[in-house]
Write a structure and sequence with these properties.
single chain; mainly alpha; ABC transporter involved in vitamin B12 uptake, BtuC; 0% strand
């Protein structure tokens, strides 16, 4: 029972937090507010699942926010300027994200460049490409049918997409060879290599899937307002990393889960929503989330030192 509670602690924390805030704030428990929170969590939740795949391999991707932005601009320009049907425009955006992820994976695995440096460069390059393609202006005048993806027709559409993504990758992580290889690669790169795992292929796959999910999130984000902004998804990479850490993922690799990452994203969004409802300054919201991340990383390191898994 103790191991079960420890493994699923983000879900218990989320449930307790929601109950507490529902008692404290009648506005928080209103149906309209819950719809708003779930819709806003959809984008961060999808990006967080992609970021989790990279973190499981003991790497990090700082480019997901910029990749989401450039994907949304490419996909929306395809629909507006080149008259692509909505499904093909969405596919173009997701493929743009996949391409960015593949580039990251190539330079990390074949170029032997630290992921921090590669993805930092991609973050700047993708944001610059977004500004160049859009001319620094939002892309609007999109087809009305594009709005269904972001929930303008039925509010639960992005929520269902996010749940489908989380369930899919929960199955992948727990029931497939690729999922086990991700955990093994992050747990011990050398041991995974000696076990016959192609660690370069696994890490490259993680970056590619991370880019693909960032592209999908970017299209949902653009669909919510029917506008693709070149400044969209700024700082979302930090939110995604924070969601994974709050959800129990270890930045040293080998630990974490898809549902836990979604729970981490929900915890962040619920806290921010409560602060907004109570008119708490945005800067204090940042302090709260940042302090929570530091506290959870401190707890994770302390737990591993006690277990002998981490040494100074």
């Amino acid at each position: 029972m103790k191991r079960f509670i420890a493994k699923h602690s983000p879900l218990f924390i989320l449930a307790a937090l929601c109950l507490l805030l529902a008692v404290m704030s009648p506005q928080f428990r209103s149906w309209a507010n819950l719809q708003d929170v779930s819709g806003r969590t959809a984008v961060i939740g999808i990006i967080a699942v992609g970021e989790l795949l990279v973190i499981l391999t003991a790497n990090i991707d700082l480019s997901v926010g910029s990749v989401a932005a450039v994907s949304s601009v490419v996909g929306c320009m395809a629909m507006k300027e080149w008259d692509f049907p909505v499904p093909l425009g969405v596919a173009a955006g997701m493929l743009t994200g996949l391409l960015c992820g593949c580039i990251n994976g190539f330079f990390v695995t074949k170029g032997r460049i630290p992921a921090f440096i590669v993805t930092l460069g991609m973050m700047m390059a993708a944001r610059g490409a977004t500004l160049i393609l859009s001319g620094g202006k939002p892309v609007f005048g999109l087809p009305a049918s594009f709005g269904w993806l972001g929930g303008s027709v039925v509010w639960w559409m992005p929520v269902c997409i996010t749940l489908a993504v989380v369930i899919l990758f929960a199955v992948v992580l727990n029931m497939t060879r690729f999922g086990r290889a991700l955990y093994a690669t992050g747990g011990s790169l050398q041991a995974a290599r000696l076990s016959g795992i192609n660690v370069d292929r696994v890490r490259a796959g993680a970056f590619a899937l991370c880019g693909l999910l960032a592209g999908a999130a970017g299209m949902i984000l653009a669909s919510r307002t029917s506008v693709a902004s070149p400044n969209a998804a700024e700082m979302y990479e930090l939110d995604a990393i924070a969601a994974c850490v709050i959800g129990g993922a270890s930045l040293m690799g080998g630990e974490g889960g898809a549902f836990a990452a979604l729970a981490g994203a929900l915890i962040m969004m619920v806290l921010r929503n409560f602060c907004t409802l109570e008119d708490i300054n945005f800067y204090w919201q940042q302090v709260l989330v940042g302090s929570l991340v530091i506290a959870l990383v401190f707890y994770d390191n302390r737990r591993k030192r006690k277990a002998g898994l981490l040494r100074d």
